Amino acid sequence: MEEYQIRVVEEKKDLDNKLMRLIEFMETGGFMSLSLDERGMMARQEMAMVAYSDVLSERIDAFDI
Predict the structure, then answer these.
(1) From CA 35, how far away is CA 7, in angstroms rounded?
(2) Tens of pLDDT along 38-60?
(3) I need a labelling partner for 8 at 20 to 30 A (CA). Which of 2, 35, 40, 61 fits?
(4) How far from the centroid of its chain's Cα atoms is residue 12's Cα?
């Protein structure tokens, strides 16, 4: 595997860990205690992270290894 490909795989792993922690937080009372605006921004962040993770998955799938 090329060096840049290794970096993409690591980036996806890191992103997916952060996404998992965000989703877990969004299922807690702490999330519900935030303002509606803050919850909305976090929901948008989650959607962006999912889209980013999907793109990284596509890139990894396209690696010719």
Answers:
(1) 36
(2) 999 999 999 999 999 999 999 99
(3) 40
(4) 8
